[in-house]
């Protein structure tokens, strides 16, 4: 009864805090909407081949063009100067250009995935032209370029959404739990509670339950936005997703309580928590995949809990998989949760 | 049932760098308003925190309402009311909600409506906490300390930062609390407040009790019950030479000298003579009874608000 009252009061007061409401609910949704739209690559991703200074009228060119037009490649014909400019800007993944008596291909290492795929298709078209010259009529196998359920990197929002779900839990733990309790201690709110007969665990449990409700509400809104704005949906089980959300909430809230035990003031807490927050925010693969990041960068954050957590989350959300293959990731997150909980029990101070 | 609301024997508390409280004894009777006075750093707050159960003493014993913290912590908490020096609440909670919430922590509670009326906050009952003035916040803190109908009420500097009118308003509330039969223990920086409000008081410094008694009793115990004040135009000159000539202690403070004396009748002619000859060019002469402020100065060598 006391707990319920404490919980409801937390909810009521939270709902009156417009700044908290904005940062908790509106901001992540705006981020998803904004970044998802900016980096939206369309419902079906297109492979573009820049064709630089090759004339359709030349006999050698005509046959290759005919063959290329039967592939899923989008041809962009430019004069050599325009093609060079586009190449310099780094927008071109693959480029076809005259070389000697025939043609040559240039592939951009930064866009290696698209570039190599395009190059391979060009090579196959070229082979088909040669086979036709020998009198054979090659048959084409149809190629469709697609991202399954729009859940993979073809749609950036699908990559970003689980990243933001994880980031939300991290900032909830470090700021709306850790920071808030340091400020309660600093302002003497805990002392005021200490002179009442209210058991302290009821106060904290009420707070934790309220944050859990907020976290789930926030996630539900993000999922709805992802579905209606970008057509992305959870590929895995919602039950597993909820279980992983609960694990993440536990881990990051424990981290907030643990860090709160090392700071006397909200200012010093800000410094301590940022030392954890920023590396995780930028280097744990929230906004972009770390597969192409330098080795040291991946090593630097390998022990922090957000990147294994996001791998588990994306495994469910994007791949529709269960926990299989994520044993180590789950173990790292769970170890952080237990360690932080232990430190919090030992260090958390009321006065 | 004991007739002592509070009984403290030999409590000590040492922090890494300072011995905050060094063997303190206190007795507070039921139904009285008891004041704890002392300069900043005297150990008042640490003493109160130990009595209120926020900090555990290193040694000594504390009994509130005949109960022991170790065995009856929860019962003590539900029978005492505490106003801390600064009471921090959520910004967007209203006085009525705060009273209902804190009331819900106790087995026995008073109606928010009655408490709001007692501290004259009825018209602010549904305003957010951040919008209250300093005086209104203090009155709300006082109401919160009374929410469980406590037998013993602690008020830590209840009128600090209030304007004179608001202070007087709070004094009336404290008297009303006492008249309802509750015991009140308060700390204050204001000597006039202590003199007017407290039935008995204790003065402490450096973690020890210096003296305890009724305000009038303490003043009468003072060996020097009168003070002659000389006021100058602008800053008062160095009193040293004249003090030597008089053979009395003369304290220079701002634009005045203060001369504590047992016999103002004998001192006045000499001061008048000094004015006539122009030796001491003061403008005003004023004889007053010693106050608690003088008791304090005498005992600690410091003014209370230094």
Write a compact overview of the structure shown.
With 351 residues, chain A is of the alpha/beta class. Helices cover 65% and strands 6% of the residues of chain A.
Percent helix of chain B, as a range, is: 25-40%
Radius of gyration of chain B: 23 Å
Provide the helix percentage of chain A.
55-70%
Gross geometry of chain A: elongated
Main β-sheet of chain A, in a few words? 4 strands, mixed
Evaluate the radius of gyration of chain A.
27 Å
**Order of helical and strand elements of chain A:** HHEHEHEEHHHHHHHHH
Secondary-structure content class of chain B? alpha/beta
Question: What does this 3D model show about the protein?
Answer:
The complex is a heterodimer of chains A (351) and B (306). With 351 residues, chain A is an alpha/beta fold. Chain A is built from 13 helices and four strands. Chain A has helices spanning 2-16, 18-38, 59-68, 80-89, 112-133, 156-187, 189-194, 200-230, 238-260, 266-283, 295-300, 306-317, 327-347; strands spanning 48-52, 74-78, 94-99, 102-107. The two termini of chain A are 26 Å apart. Chain B is α/β, with parallel strands linked by helices and 306 residues long. Chain B has a six-stranded mixed sheet, with helices on both faces. Chain B has a four-stranded antiparallel sheet with strand order 2-1-4-5. A four-stranded antiparallel sheet of chain B has the order 12-13-11-14, covered by helices on one side. In chain B, helix 3 crosses helix 4. The model of chain B has no long low-confidence stretch (mean pLDDT 88). The A-B interface holds A 2, 5, 9, 12-13, 16-17, 184, 187-189, 191-192, 194-198, 351 and B 52-55, 74, 77-78, 80, 82, 84-93, 97, 101-102, 104-107, 128, 144.
């Amino acid at each position: 009864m006391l707990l319920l009252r404490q919980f409801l009061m937390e909810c009521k007061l939270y709902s009156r805090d417009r700044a908290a409401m904005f940062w908790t609910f509106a901001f992540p949704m705006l981020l998803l909407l904004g970044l998802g739209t900016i980096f939206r690559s369309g419902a079906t991703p297109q492979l573009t081949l820049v064709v630089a200074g090759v004339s359709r009228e030349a006999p050698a060119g005509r046959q290759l063009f005919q063959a290329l037009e039967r592939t899923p490649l989008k041809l962009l014909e430019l004069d050599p100067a325009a093609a060079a400019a586009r190449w310099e800007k780094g927008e071109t993944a693959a480029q076809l250009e005259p070389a000697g008596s025939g043609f040559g291909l240039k592939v951009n290492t930064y866009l290696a995935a698209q570039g190599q795929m395009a190059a391979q298709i060009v090579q196959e078209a070229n082979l088909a032209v040669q086979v036709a010259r020998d009198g054979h009529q090659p048959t084409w196998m149809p190629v469709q370029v697609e991202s399954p359920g729009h859940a993979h990197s073809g749609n950036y929002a699908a990559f970003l959404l689980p990243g933001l779900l994880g980031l939300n839990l991290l900032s909830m733990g470090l700021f709306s739990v850790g920071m808030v309790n340091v400020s309660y201690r600093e302002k003497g709110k805990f002392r005021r509670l200490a002179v009442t007969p209210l058991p302290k665990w009821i106060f904290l449990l009420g707070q934790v339950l309220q944050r859990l409700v907020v976290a789930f509400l926030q996630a539900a809104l993000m999922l709805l936005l992802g579905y209606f704005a970008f057509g992305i949906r959870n590929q895995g089980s919602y039950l597993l997703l909820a279980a992983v959300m609960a694990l993440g909430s536990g881990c990051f809230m424990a981290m907030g309580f643990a860090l709160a035990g090392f700071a006397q003031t909200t200012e010093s807490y800000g410094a301590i928590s940022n030392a954890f927050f920023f590396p995780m925010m930028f280097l744990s693969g929230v906004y972009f995949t770390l597969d192409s990041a330098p080795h040291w960068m991946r090593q630097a954050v390998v022990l922090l809990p957000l990147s294994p957590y996001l791998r588990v989350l994306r495994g469910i959300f994007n791949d529709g998989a269960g926990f299989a293959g994520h044993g180590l990731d789950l173990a790292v997150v769970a170890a952080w949760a237990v360690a932080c909980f232990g430190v919090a029990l030992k260090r958390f101070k009321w006065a | 049932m004991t007739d002592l609301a509070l009984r403290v024997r030999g409590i000590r508390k040492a922090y890494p760098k300072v011995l905050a409280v060094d063997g303190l004894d206190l007795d507070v009777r039921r139904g009285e308003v008891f004041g704890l006075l002392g300069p900043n750093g005297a150990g008042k707050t640490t003493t109160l925190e130990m009595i209120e159960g926020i900090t555990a003493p290193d040694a000594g014993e504390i009994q509130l309402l005949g109960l022991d913290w170790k065995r009856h912590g929860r019962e003590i908490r539900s029978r005492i009311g505490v106003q801390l020096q600064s009471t921090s609440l959520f910004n967007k909670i209203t006085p009525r909600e705060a009273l209902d919430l804190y009331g819900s922590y106790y087995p026995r509670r008073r109606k928010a409506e009655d408490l709001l009326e007692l501290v004259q906050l009825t018209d602010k009952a549904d305003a957010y906490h951040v919008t209250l003035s300093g005086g209104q916040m203090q009155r709300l803190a006082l109401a919160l300390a009374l929410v469980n109908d406590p037998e013993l009420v602690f008020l830590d500097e209840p009128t600090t930062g209030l304007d004179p009118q608001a202070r007087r308003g709070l004094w009336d509330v404290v008297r009303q609390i006492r008249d309802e039969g509750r015991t009140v223990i308060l700390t204050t920086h204001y000597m006039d407040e202590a003199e007017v409000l407290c039935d008995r008081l204790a003065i402490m410094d450096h973690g020890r009790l210096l003296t305890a008694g009724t305000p009038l009793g303490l003043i009468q115990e003072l060996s020097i019950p009168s003070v002659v004040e000389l006021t100058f135009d602008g800053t008062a000159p160095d009193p040293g030479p004249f003090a030597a000539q008089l053979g009395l202690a003369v304290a220079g403070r701002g634009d005045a000298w203060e001369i504590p004396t047992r016999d103002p009748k004998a001192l006045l002619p000499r001061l008048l003579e000094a004015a006539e000859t122009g030796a001491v060019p003061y403008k005003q002469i004023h004889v007053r009874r010693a106050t608690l402020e003088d008791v304090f100065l005498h005992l600690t060598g410091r003014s209370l608000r230094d």
